[in-house]
């Protein structure tokens, strides 16, 4: 990820966000690992979005799961249309780094994806994950239907009880209906498959989430 850059921990106001651009970034439409389309049609899968800090490591946590049809990294939860990586890292777009997970709900459930989400990062850190500091590293679950939203909120409440018993603070995960998702540049997609020794700053709390 970007080091030595400004580390913003306060979200911008919508009117102060970067203007972005009308055209989307051009992205290779083939998953480097699964050989499936990066952009799976809505009628071919269920999808959800997870922010767990650095999206390089977070994406790998999902593409390895049986039942996941495709995954992609990108940006969401902010204001700037079609942002670049550098713009998101500036803290001036309002976006967080996300993993889009397209899955076959007959083979893997949203609840099983939540297990991975809670167990593979620390959702109590606010605008950071470990040494990665900034609004783009905040924890988030963006849901595509009311069933997902209900399960996500219940799982947060359940895990909060477990974390509190272990001495952790409040969960800061942002849970809401998904808005526009913008694909990140091609070199970010499936980054750790292309660069097996690449950076991954994810670290769990050590408290196992029990549904």
| Largest sheet descriptor | 6 strands, mixed
Radius of gyration: 16 Å
Spans of at least 5 consecutive residues with low confidence: none
What CATH calls the topology is Peptide Methionine Sulfoxide Reductase, Chain A
Q: So what's the overall shape?
A: globular
Q: Compute the separation of the termini in Å.
A: 32 Å
Structural class: alpha+beta
Share of helix among residues?
Answer: 10-25%
Please give the order of strands in the largest beta sheet.
7-6-1-3-2-8
Name of the CATH first level = Alpha Beta
Number of DSSP E strands = 8
> So, CATH architecture?
2-Layer Sandwich
What's the number of structural domains?
1
Question: What string gives the helices and strands in order?
Answer: EHEHEHEEEHEEH
The count of helical stretches stands at 5
Report the mean per-residue pLDDT as an integer: 96
CATH superfamily: Peptide methionine sulphoxide reductase MsrA
Oligomeric state as shown: single chain
Strand residues, percent: 15-25%
């Amino acid at each position: 990820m970007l080091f030595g850059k400004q580390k913003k921990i306060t979200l911008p106001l919508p009117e102060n966000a970067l203007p972005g651009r009308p055209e989307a970034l051009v992205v290779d439409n083939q998953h480097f690992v699964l050989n499936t389309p990066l952009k799976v049609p809505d009628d071919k899968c269920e999808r959800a979005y997870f922010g767990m800090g650095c999206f390089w490591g977070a994406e790998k946590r999902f593409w390895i799961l049986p039942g996941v049809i495709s995954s992609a990294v990108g940006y969401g939860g902010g204001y700037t249309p079609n942002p670049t990586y550098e713009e998101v890292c500036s803290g001036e777009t309002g976006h967080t780094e996300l993993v889009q997970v397209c899955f076959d709900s007959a083979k893997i459930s949203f609840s099983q994806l939540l297990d991975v989400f809670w167990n593979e990062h620390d959702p109590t850190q606010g605008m950071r994950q470990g040494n990665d500091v900034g609004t783009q590293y905040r924890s988030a679950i963006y849901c595509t239907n009311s069933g997902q939203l209900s399960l996500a909120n219940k799982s947060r409440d359940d895990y909060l009880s477990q974390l509190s018993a272990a001495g952790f603070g409040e969960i800061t995960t942002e849970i809401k209906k998904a808005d526009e998702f913008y694909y990140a540049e091609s070199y970010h997609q499936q980054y750790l498959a292309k660069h097996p020794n690449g950076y991954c700053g994810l670290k769990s709390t050590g408290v196992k989430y029990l549904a």
